[in-house]
Amino acid sequence: MTPVDEWFIKHILPLEPALMQFLRKNLRKSDDHDDIRQDVYLRIYKHACRFGPPENTGTILFVTARNLLIDRARRFRLVPIEHMENIDQFPESGINELSPERIISAREQINALQIAMNAMPARPREAIKLQRIEGKSRIEIARDLGITQSTVDKHLKYGSSLIAKIKM
């Protein structure tokens, strides 16, 4: 057993009940609690193997859990446009949501969105793309585009208003 293994057993595993309570409080879908817990453990263990065991174990555990929940929420909040391109690949049998009308409507919405994005000025288009498609935060967008967060907010607001005007 390595020193990291011993540290993990002695300092991390005893915090599992508190971690699970935190996850139950902050994550509605109970099926995911164990998966998130394992991801937290994996990240902490890998970090400890690479840099050595941290001193403030409890803080690291809960900050890691919180960050994973935030990342997960971002992933589920965003639906990349590319996922709608292959809508014909989904089976239609037994699924009412994928009626021919719904497929046509979805394609029309995608086309309208593409037209709106293409008509948009470059900076608002890039800001919208970075936020809604790539899932980047305002801070990351500002850094990537070399502009202030305030300017990012203005671009996002303008771009969103143009998208909202689309007839869907």
What does this protein structure show overall?
The protein folds into 2 domains: 3-77, Rna Polymerase Sigma Factor, Chain: A (Orthogonal Bundle); 82-164, Winged helix-like DNA-binding domain superfamily/Winged helix DNA-binding domain (Arc Repressor Mutant, subunit A, Orthogonal Bundle). By secondary structure, it is an all-alpha fold. The chain starts with a helix and ends with a helix. The model is unreliable at 89-96 (pLDDT under 50). The longest helix is centred in the middle third of the chain and has 21 residues, at 57-77. It contains 8 helices and no strands.
Task: Give the gist of this structure.
The protein is built from eight helices and no strands.
Uncertain segments are 89-96
Q: Please give the radius of gyration in angstroms.
A: 22 Å
Fourth-tier CATH superfamily name of the largest domain:
Winged helix-like DNA-binding domain superfamily/Winged helix DNA-binding domain
- The proportion of residues forming helix, as a percent range, comes to 55-70%
Strand content: under 5%
Q: What's the pLDDT, averaged over the residues?
A: 81
Q: Biggest sheet, open or closed, and with what strands and sense?
A: none
Order of SSEs: HHHHHHHH
Topology, number of strands: 0
Main structural class: mainly alpha
CATH architecture of the largest domain: Orthogonal Bundle
Assembly type: single chain
Q: What is the CA-CA span between the terminal residues?
A: 60 Å
- What is the CATH topology classification name of the largest domain? Arc Repressor Mutant, subunit A
Please identify the top-level CATH class of the largest domain: Mainly Alpha
- Give the overall shape, derived from the CA principal axes: elongated
Total domain modules:
2
